[in-house]
Automatic annotation (TrEMBL):
Organism for this UniProt entry: Winogradskyella flava
Record function comment: F(1)F(0) ATP synthase produces ATP from ADP in the presence of a proton or sodium gradient. F-type ATPases consist of two structural domains, F(1) containing the extramembraneous catalytic core and F(0) containing the membrane proton channel, linked together by a central stalk and a peripheral stalk. During catalysis, ATP synthesis in the catalytic domain of F(1) is coupled via a rotary mechanism of the central stalk subunits to proton translocation.
Subcellular location: Cell membrane; Membrane
Family matches, as InterPro entries: ATP_synth_OSCP/delta_N_sf (IPR026015), ATPase_OSCP/dsu (IPR000711)
Bilayer topology term: Peripheral membrane protein
Protein name: ATP synthase subunit delta
Keyword Ion transport recorded: yes
Record lineage: Bacteria, Pseudomonadati, Bacteroidota, Flavobacteriia, Flavobacteriales
Gene expressing this chain: atpH
GO molecular function, one term: proton-transporting ATP synthase activity, rotational mechanism
Principal location class: membrane
Source species, domain of life: Bacteria
PANTHER family reported in the protein's UniProt record: ATP SYNTHASE DELTA CHAIN (PTHR11910)
Keywords: ATP synthesis, Cell membrane, CF(1), Hydrogen ion transport, Ion transport, Membrane, Transport
C-alpha cells in the first residue's frame, strides 16, 4: 500500500510540474507508453525491481527502451533513481495517466467481450457510460473468449457483468444451493 501512495505522490508532482510547463499532454503520452510497456514485459518489470541490478544499468535500459520521452519524464526517472524508488516507475506512470484523465474529466471504460467491438457497439457503450457517469470516456476493448458472450463493463471502481459465463455461474450456484 505504501508503494501505491508513494507512486501517487510522485505522479501528482510530475503532473503539477508538467502543467506549469504546459507539457502535461506530452508527459501523459510518455506515461501511457511506459505504463503499458512495463505491464506487458515481465523482464522489464523484474529488472526494475531487482536490487542487484545497478541503477546506471537500469537507466541505460530505460533510455534504450524509451528513447523519445520528454524531459519531464526523463527527470522523473532520474528522481526515482536518486531516491532508490525506480521499482515504482510503472505504478507512477499509471497513476499519472489516471490523474490526468480525472483532470480532463475523462475516464477509461474497459469493455471485456468475447469478440472485438464493432464501431456501432463502441458508440452505444460510450453513450451509456456518459449517461451513467456524466463524463466522457475512452473505450479499451479487452478480448476474453472465456466469457462466451455478452460483456463486462468496468468504469473506475464500478463493474457491470453481463457475460454469459457469469449468468451460467449464477445458475450453477442456484442449482447447487437447492
Amino acid at each position: 500500500m505504501s508503494g501505491s501512495r508513494a507512486a501517487v505522490r510522485y505522479a501528482k508532482a510530475v503532473l503539477s510540474l508538467a502543467q506549469d510547463q504546459k507539457a502535461a499532454e506530452a508527459v501523459n503520452s510518455d506515461m501511457k507508453l511506459i505504463s503499458e510497456t512495463i505491464a506487458q514485459s515481465d523482464e522489464l518489470r523484474q529488472m526494475l525491481q531487482n536490487p542487484v541490478v545497478r541503477s546506471a544499468d537500469k537507466k541505460s535500459v530505460l533510455s534504450s527502451v524509451f528513447p523519445k520521452v520528454s524531459a519531464n519524464s526523463e527527470n522523473l526517472v532520474n528522481t526515482l533513481i536518486s531516491n532508490k524508488r525506480l521499482a515504482l516507475l510503472g505504478e507512477v506512470a499509471s497513476s499519472y495517466v489516471q490523474l490526468f484523465d480525472q483532470l480532463r474529466g475523462s475516464q477509461v471504460a474497459q469493455v471485456t467481450t468475447a469478440v472485438p467491438l464493432t464501431g456501432d457497439l463502441k458508440t452505444k457503450v460510450l453513450v451509456k457510460v456518459k449517461e451513467l457517469t456524466g463524463k466522457e470516456a475512452e473505450i479499451e476493448n479487452i478480448i476474453d473468449e472465456s466469457i462466451l458472450g455478452g460483456f463486462i463493463l468496468r468504469v473506475g471502481d464500478t463493474q457491470y457483468n453481463a457475460s454469459i459465463a457469469n449468468k451460467l455461474d449464477k445458475l450453477k450456484r442456484e442449482f447447487t444451493l437447492n
